[in-house]
């Protein structure tokens, strides 16, 4: 259980105001039917009452995306119609978007999505209505979901090798996304492992980027601009990026282990203990909500076991978890496992957070729609604590500091 935090109150000109903890820690700001984390920190519930690990282990991308947007798993006809529509949107890429992507410098791929999402909004929704029905919003949500893998794959390849991998709608969405990233068609096992991580990343309550999207939606801005804001939030190292940092840490440990001539699973304990002595963070452990166990790791672990060097990596991760539980009482989180899984697939480390976004775009757009259709502007008050009573002084009369 997370520690209870009591709110305080003060009287303001418009009545009593609530003072909540910094960072909105342990504060419920709204209700949602899309997903929620069990307050015991043991599970996350996806829309309709399914657990995130159940859906992650069994549902494909189309089923999970449909579930988060429509509230139930699709029947056969619904599945076929949804898949057909999403796959058709994967090929509807404005030529000027491709031209524009070729001009962006070789920076982190997350920058490309902020740019591309806003550009897509100008192509598909230059004038956004203040009122809209679900069908209108869902059409634009599906365009964002469909085109996100292409955008990130182009962001990686164009400035580095000049290749532009176009979507292949004959392949399933997740398998094609991995193909465009790797530049080769993956095996069915590789594709399924990758797909499972997209499903696990699809939604996770009011995390920072999702809340950013909902705040944006509450202003009635368009869904493309709100998604761009979500990318900007996810790009921050305290939200996204943990899987990149976790893998970088493990590779540093492997380099040291190789230099010492010992297997990584036998060296990882020494590595972690030494970092803790220096009061350094161990990436991939701890979570704002999961205090006992992150159930998403159970699904990812099964796929790590089946991929390249799986036995070795599971031994390393198991030992790392044992050490962190003993030393800090912190469980591993999903980013530790997806970092290893993406490394096994041969995915470049700077693409790990973009892959997070390829899944989370489903949740972002679902939350945008939920907020837009039952909206109230999100605008909290503040408590000003700076000086008061100062008067403007001409520059000639200001003293030097």
Q: Topology of this structure?
A:
Layout: E1 8-12, E2 15-19, E3 35-37, E4 44-46, E5 50-51, H1 52-58, H2 61-70, H3 76-90, H4 95-101, H5 109-124, H6 134-157, H7 173-182, H8 188-201, H9 208-218, H10 223-234, H11 242-260, H12 264-277, H13 296-306, H14 310-328, H15 334-344, H16 352-373
Antiparallel strand pairs: 1-2, 3-4, 4-5
Helix pairs in contact: 1-8, 1-13, 3-6, 5-6, 5-10, 6-7, 6-16, 7-8, 8-13, 8-16, 9-10, 9-16, 10-16, 11-12, 11-15, 12-14, 13-14, 13-15
Largest sheet: 3 strands, antiparallel
C-alpha Rg (nearest Å): 23 Å
- Strand percent estimate: under 5%
The CATH homologous superfamily name of the largest domain equals: Citrate Synthase, domain 1
Distance from N terminus to C terminus (CA atoms, Å) equals 50 Å
Nutshell version of this structure?
By secondary structure, the protein is mostly helical. 55% of the residues lie in helices and 4% in strands.
Characterise the protein shown here.
With 401 residues, this protein is mainly alpha-helical. The protein has 2 domains: 37-237 and 348-373, Citrate Synthase, domain 1 (Orthogonal Bundle), CATH 1.10.580; 242-344, Orthogonal Bundle (Cytochrome p450-Terp, domain 2), CATH 1.10.230. 55% of the residues lie in helices and 4% in strands. It contains 16 helices and 5 strands. The chain has helices at residues 52-58, 61-70, 76-90, 95-101, 109-124, 134-157, 173-182, 188-201, 208-218, 223-234, 242-260, 264-277, 296-306, 310-328, 334-344, 352-373; strands at 8-12, 15-19, 35-37, 44-46, 50-51. The strands form 2 sheets. The protein has a 3-stranded antiparallel β-sheet. Helix 8 packs across helix 16, helix 11 packs across helix 12 and helix 12 runs parallel beside helix 14. The radius of gyration is 23 Å and the shape is globular.
């Amino acid at each position: 259980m997370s520690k209870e935090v009591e709110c305080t109150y003060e009287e303001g000109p418009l009545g009593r105001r609530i003072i909540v903890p910094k960072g909105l820690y342990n504060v419920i700001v709204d209700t949602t039917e899309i997903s929620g984390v069990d307050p015991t920190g043991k599970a996350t519930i996806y829309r309709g009452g399914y657990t995130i690990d159940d859906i992650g282990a069994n549902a494909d991308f189309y089923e999970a995306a449909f579930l988060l947007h429509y509230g139930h798993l699709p029947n056969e006809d619904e599945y076929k119609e949804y898949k057909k529509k999403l796959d058709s949107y994967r090929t509807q890429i404005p030529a000027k978007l491709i031209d524009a992507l070729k001009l962006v410098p070789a920076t982190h791929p997350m920058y490309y999505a902020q740019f591309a999402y806003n550009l897509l909004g100008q192509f598909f929704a230059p004038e956004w209505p203040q009122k809209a029905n679900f069908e209108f919003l869902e059409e634009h949500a599906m365009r964002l979901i469909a085109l996100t893998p292409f955008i990130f794959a182009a962001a990686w390849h164009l400035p580095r090798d000049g290749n532009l991998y176009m979507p292949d709608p004959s392949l399933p969405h997740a398998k094609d996304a991995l193909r465009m990233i790797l530049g080769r068609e993956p095996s069915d096992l590789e594709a399924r492992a990758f797909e499972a991580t997209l499903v696990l990343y699809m939604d996770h309550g009011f995390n920072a980027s999702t809340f950013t999207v909902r705040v944006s939606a509450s202003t009635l801005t368009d869904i493309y601009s709100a998604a761009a804001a979500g990318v900007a939030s996810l790009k921050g190292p305290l939200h996204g990026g943990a899987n990149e940092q976790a893998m970088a840490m493990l590779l540093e440990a492997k380099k040291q282990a190789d230099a010492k001539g010992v297997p990584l699973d036998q060296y990882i304990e020494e590595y972690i203990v030494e970092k803790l002595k220096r009061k350094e963070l161990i990436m991939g452990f701890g979570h704002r909500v999961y205090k006992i166990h992150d159930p998403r790791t159970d699904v990812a672990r099964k796929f790590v076991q089946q991929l390249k060097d799986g036995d070795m990596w599971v031994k390393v991760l198991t030992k790392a978890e044992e050490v962190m539980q003993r030393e800090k009482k912190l469980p591993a989180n999903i980013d530790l496992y997806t970092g290893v899984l993406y490394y096994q697939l041969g995915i470049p480390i700077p693409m790990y957070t973009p892959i997070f976004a390829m899944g989370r775009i489903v949740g972002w757009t679902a939350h945008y729609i939920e907020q837009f259709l039952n909206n109230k502007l999100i605008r909290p008050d503040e408590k000003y604590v700076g000086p008061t009573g100062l008067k403007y002084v001409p520059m000639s009369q200001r003293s030097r500091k």
